[in-house]
Design brief:
Radius of gyration: 23 Å
Number of strands: 17
Oligomer: single chain
CATH topology of the largest domain: TIM Barrel
Structural class: alpha/beta
Strand content: 15-25%
CATH superfamily of the largest domain: Alanine racemase
Bound molecules: pyridoxal-5'-phosphate
CATH architecture of the largest domain: Alpha-Beta Barrel
Length: 388
């Protein structure tokens, strides 16, 4: 197999899905596991998850239509985000998707098209960051971007709008928060906030969507069981699990730990300052936000008897000086054709980074019966077609 390529472990992927399913089944059977498509929207993955009974959580018309193309019926889609288009909104309403309202436009579409539908609608809540420990959450000063703020009065307005539209509305709430730590405490705080809202507004919830942002498949970190039990402990104070469906939308926890990237060393040289190792990987593939400094990695070399070097700077294929993937210390001296394998990089990687200088690499999946290619690297001809 020619590097660079991603390799998905079906075994790990399946274990991550099963961990969530088991936690939900044991603790809150009236629940839905929805996969966050943006985290990795590889069609093979979406089809695999569809076949394992996982819903798709989407945040654009394009992701919605991709999920449909991958075989999800509308009623197995959770439609989120503030940029929903009018036509897809109508389709989602008619098809009984879960729709979490996140903009004034969403409310207008609901008023225009929702009247005689059995809409399954929730309100994305703009959670006050003060409810969290500041070490867990960013945006402490300026607050989150998404949802309707209770404190600013917009949550009540959205609620009113839905209640005026339906005599016995199926109202849900959606509370996704991106945290820095993925700590269980974030979900305890979110659940407490939800309980307060439910008490204050006397809402009978058809569903509560706790969003994504969990760990999964990572030793020493919280498990789906830890998160769901903590959420349940708090929600049970006001919410009956038999009457209110619990939705969770993990992305990284499903695919993150199940993917490795295989790269090769293309060139090794010394400058007056450093040992530079140029590879066919790139931060474009593993770190599209250009923010990471550490990776879980392993090295494959024909000869591990080489003397280790104090410091080697591993760089990517792009001709950008800051495409420095990582600095490795006290490692075997790398030579041309050695391999560097990055582990647990399935989230926000293979379908996030753009096609820059070189194009998308191959993706393989390791199944019981061998290794299969599930995405062909993008050729120059493909690239030309897409861009002309
Ligand atoms: C609404 C929503 N749900 C789920 C997720 C998935 O998050 P993660 O991949 O961290 O689980 C995100 C990511 O930002 C999100 O915005």
């Amino acid at each position: 197999m020619k590097t660079p390529y991603f390799l998905i472990s079906e075994e790990k992927l399946n274990a991550n899905v099963e961990d969530f399913k088991k936690a939900l089944q044991d603790l809150w059977p009236n629940s839905t596991l929805a996969y966050s498509v943006k985290t990795n929207s590889l069609p093979w993955l979406l089809q695999y998850l569809r076949d394992t009974d996982v819903f798709a959580e989407v945040v654009s018309d394009e992701e919605y239509q991709l999920a449909r193309l991958c075989g999800y019926s509308d009623d197995r889609i959770v439609f989120n985000g503030p940029i929903k288009g009018e036509e897809t909104f109508q389709q989602a309403l008619l098809g009984k998707a879960v729709i979490n309202l996140d903009s004034v436009k969403d409310l207008e579409y609901l008023k225009k098209y929702g009247k005689d539908t059995e809409a399954c609608v929730g309100i994305r809540v703009n959670v006050n960051p003060k409810v969290f420990d500041s070490k867990d959450i960013g945006y402490e000063e300026d607050g989150f971007r998404f949802g309707f703020s209770e404190e600013a009065g917009d949550f009540a307005k959205a609620l009113n709008c839905i209640q005026n539209l339906y005599s016995s509305p199926n109202i849900g709430i959606h509370l996704h928060c991106n945290s820095i730590t993925r700590s269980v405490n974030v979900y305890i705080a979110l659940a407490k906030y939800a309980v307060e809202l439910v008490r204050k507004y006397g809402i009978k919830l058809s569903f509560i969507d706790m969003g994504g942002g969990y760990f999964g498949g990572v030793e020493g970190k919280p498990t789906p069981y830890d998160y769901i039990s903590a959420i349940k402990n708090e929600l049970m104070k006001e919410i009956n699990p038999n009457e209110t469906r619990l939705i969770v939308e993990p992305g990284s926890a499903i695919i993150g730990s199940a993917v490795d990237l295989y790269t090769s060393v293309l060139d090794v040289k010394d400058t007056n300052c450093s040992r530079i190792v140029t590879t066919d990987g790139s931060r474009v593939y593993v770190d599209p936000l250009w923010a990471k400094t550490r990776y879980m990695y392993s090295l494959q070399s024909a000869d591990f008897n080489r003397v280790p070097l104090d410091k080697q700077i591993v760089c990517g294929y792009t001709c950008m000086d800051h495409d420095r993937i990582m600095i490795i210390k006290n490692e075997t001296e790398l030579h041309v054709e050695d391999k560097i394998i990055y582990h647990r990089i399935g989230a926000y990687s293979m379908t996030f980074g753009g096609m820059f200088i070189r194009y998308y690499p191959d993706v393989y999946v390791k199944l019981n019966n061998g290794i299969h290619k599930v995405r062909n690297r993008v050729s120059v001809e493909d690239y030309y077609k897409i861009n002309s």
